[in-house]
Specification:
Glucose Oxidase, domain 1, about 750 residues, Rossmann fold, 19 helices, alpha/beta, Alpha-Beta Plaits
Length: about 750
């Protein structure tokens, strides 16, 4: 009996021990699983509930501690506390923890961290931003000497001449930012009265690499120093100082300067090598920029399709919202995924979204064939010696053995490049060719220059001309001359092929992009021996507009970001500065529409005096949030006060943006807009309508009279269609004119849809 009891007792102990071991194993497994699944999440809490930043951060730790169980766990989890422009934090959480935290009563929403990607000697003259003009925005603002432009990018190269502070006065007294030292960057010697702020943000980057990010291995430095050149290029486009005789190996020679050449620069490094930019780092930089006192935030980066749905899921847009609510315009790149439609990014209605155009400057590389016919290559720069007449070989005629036997050596390689084809340039470089001619689709960008082997791009039409010569000549030859630059007519402006297009894929009734600016083949500062280089992209167009916005904030300090956006759109050019129509590069090329360039090409000569503006503030943004289906709880947290959307839900068509976009028209509708007079008292405006094809428009009232006591007037637009079938978008405009002194034009985009089938 005792023996039996002992067996039972030991058996029970064994079972208990096994059970305890299983629990421990499972617990370890779950903990390990959680650790493996830990990711960075951004927790949005809306408006700050305290003015003291320390109290804001303490409240963030309180929320995390309630989830994680201890102060230590909270400190280890938190990466950033956003406590200046808005309230929120970034933390390492598992998906279950993130879901649990999203139910917290103080939390607006929780989003998983994502990364963004990085989306001038001629520009200022082309746009009329010259210091010699006795009047105008540049002259009237002392070239922006009191403005501060916040550049969120890859950092800055402080040794560039574009960031000299010669002739600048003291740093604006309102500036609260600072310069931070790091690798190869000394704050005391690298910052000056031009570059007044330089910081870097890497916590999000490091966490995404689980602490294994090797900066040196990736060619990076942990400091505000720019090693890729993107941020330096953008900063000098926005606010570069005057630098005479700037060029890239003699090309594009002239005086380099930014849109606001005396404005101050605050650099926030949020992007790293290989164009990696993490949302927590971007948000912290925006938080600091709001506190620091910048006049405009310039961000040449963004997401790609598919974009985040709804405003409460976009880290980027939420940060911009808080900046705008504090009176700071946010200017963003529209993206480089054109010419396909519905590819534009940064589409929130409080963001100024920029498309890219070419200018009246082109770079051509002459190719002279053996029959003395000269054709012009584009989109690549060659600054070496002329390649004399050499035999042409066609890539498709060559085998691998031919290359191995040296049959291409000393010759000019000719090829047609299509998607997914081999890297012709690399293929040629290793086989001793003296030049390469590549026929491809045009992309409206300038490839980096070379001094060894010329790589010359031609379009397919010219490619076929070369092919015809190659097929008919007994001994086909060609010579390639160095690239030459040409300025002025007959080169007209077009929306660059790479520039992302509308319509807006999230809210089709909100027109995007808003405005266009030169962004193709822009010469600006880079961290290299040459000092200046060419880059293309909406990234380059964005700081052009940011500099103009900085000037405008100096000229019109009482204007809201929405009023500034309206002035940009309503004064924009639909032709280039010389009166030629602006086309849109694509397949095929066509006249540009609002989905290509928004209101049109930015017009700094008119933007400070638009006459009327379509303004937006608290009420208008809430109108949008409600019309977009944003929850009352989320809106309340975002605004810092209880808010309930009206019933029925307001129409997005009535959001007071400077455009009218109707994605689905099948019956008569009435749209409202409100304009604010920023011109002379007593102004009288009359409506001029250019109706889209097959669309009937009636404006009421047709005349707007702004007396001494009338600052704002609301008008309606009655819209109906004569089409009996579904159509694509047709375009027109509505202009309020006071006999030509001001022509306040907004674009109209209307699509007839009798059914919108969603299966």
């Amino acid at each position: 009996m005792e023996f039996s009891s002992l067996i039972v007792s030991n058996h029970r102990k064994h079972i208990a021990l096994v059970f305890i071991c299983l629990v421990l194993i499972l617990k370890i497994a779950f903990v390990s699983s959680d650790n493996q699944e830990s990711q960075i999440y951004t927790v949005h809490l809306g408006e700050r509930q305290h003015d003291d930043p320390k109290l804001v951060t303490d409240s963030h730790h309180d929320i995390l501690r309630s989830l994680l169980g201890s102060k230590k766990a909270s400190r280890e989890s938190m990466i950033y506390s956003y406590r200046h422009g808005f309230s929120g934090f970034a933390a390492k959480l598992t998906p279950p923890q993130a879901r649990e935290l999203s139910e917290h009563p103080d939390v607006v929403h929780v989003t998983r961290s994502k990364y963004m990607k990085l989306a001038t000697t001629r520009v200022s003259d082309y746009l009329g931003l010259t210091r010699t003009t006795p009047t105008g925005l540049v002259h009237e603002t002392d070239m922006g000497s009191g403005a501060i432009i916040g550049i969120l990018d890859t950092g800055i190269w402080p040794d560039s001449k574009s960031f000299s502070d010669n002739g600048l006065g003291p740093i604006p007294a309102r500036w609260k930012g600072k310069c931070v030292s790091g690798e190869w960057f000394n704050a005391s010697s690298n910052c000056n009265r031009k570059l007044i702020g330089a910081r870097y943000y890497a916590k999000g980057l490091l966490e995404n690499y689980n602490g294994t990010y090797d900066a040196a291995e990736k060619g990076e430095v942990m400091s505000p120093l720019d090693v890729t050149g993107h941020g330096t290029h953008c900063a000098s486009i926005a606010a570069g100082s005057f630098v005479q005789d700037a060029s890239f190996l003699g090309l594009g020679s002239g005086t380099a300067r930014g849109s606001a050449p005396r404005a101050r620069i605050a650099s926030y490094k949020v992007c790293w090598s290989k164009e990696v930019c993490y949302a927590p780092d971007i948000l912290k930089a925006m938080d600091h920029a709001i506190r620091d006192g910048v006049d405009v935030i310039s961000m040449s980066l963004g997401s790609t399709i598919p974009l985040d749905f709804e405003v409460d899921r976009s880290d980027f847009a939420i940060g911009a919202f808080h900046a705008v609510m504090k009176g700071i315009p946010v200017v963003c790149a529209g993206g480089n995924d054109g010419p396909h439609s519905q590819t534009v990014s940064n589409v929130a209605p409080w963001i100024i979204t920029v498309a890219a155009t070419t200018m009246d400057r082109e770079f051509f590389t002459p190719i002279t064939l053996g029959n003395n016919v000269t054709v012009l290559g584009q989109e690549s720069l060659y600054t070496g010696k002329e390649v004399g007449f050499a035999d042409i070989v066609y890539l498709e005629d060559l085998t691998k053995n031919d290359f191995l036997a040296g049959k291409a050596k000393g010759k000019i390689l000719f090829a047609f490049q299509i998607e997914n084809s081999l890297d012709i340039e690399e293929y040629a470089k290793s086989n001793g060719v003296v030049g390469v001619i590549i026929a491809s689709n045009p992309y409206d960008h300038i490839a980096p220059g070379t001094t060894d082997i010329p790589y010359v791009y031609v379009d397919f039409e010219i490619g076929m001309d070369i092919m015809l010569y190659f097929k008919t000549a007994k001994f086909p030859k060609a010579k390639i001359s160095p690239t030459k630059s040409f300025v002025g007519r007959p080169f007209s402006t077009k929306v660059a092929r790479f520039s992302s297009r509308g319509p807006n894929s999230i809210s089709p009734a909100i027109l995007k992009p808003d405005i266009a600016a030169p962004g193709s083949g822009i010469l600006a500062a880079v961290p290299s021996e040459e000092g200046y280089g060419f880059k293309s992209g909406t990234s380059m167009a964005t700081p052009v507009v940011s500099g103009i916005v900085a000037l405008l904030r100096q000229k019109r300090p009482d204007w809201s970001p929405a009023a500034i956006r309206s002035a940009l759109v309503t004064t924009a050019l639909q032709t280039d500065p010389f009166g030629e129509p602006i086309s849109a590069e694509g397949s095929p090329r066509k006249l540009a529409s609002p989905f290509d360039f928004g209101g049109g090409l930015v017009n700094p000569g008119k933007v400070a005096d638009p006459g009327l503006v379509y303004d937006m503030g608290y009420d208008e943004y809430v109108h949008y949030l409600c019309s977009a289906g944003y929850e009352n709880k989320s809106i309340s947290k975002l605004l810092g006060k209880i808010y309930t959307c009206p019933s029925p839900t307001p129409s997005m068509l009535d959001v007071n943006v400077p455009s009218i976009t109707i994605p689905y028209l099948n019956e008569e509708i009435i749209i409202t807009r409100t304009v604010t007079n920023v011109g002379p008292v007593g102004s009288v405006y009359k409506a001029v309508i250019e109706a889209p094809l097959g669309i009937k428009l009636q404006v009421g009232p047709e005349t707007l009279e702004f007396g001494p006591n009338t600052k704002k007037i609301t008008f309606t637009v009655k819209v109906s269609t004569t089409h009996r079938w579904n159509t694509d978008y047709n375009f027109g405009s509505l202009t309020w004119t006071d006999n030509g002194a001001h022509n306040v034009r907004i674009p109209l985009s209307v699509r007839t849809r009798f059914s919108n089938l969603k299966i």
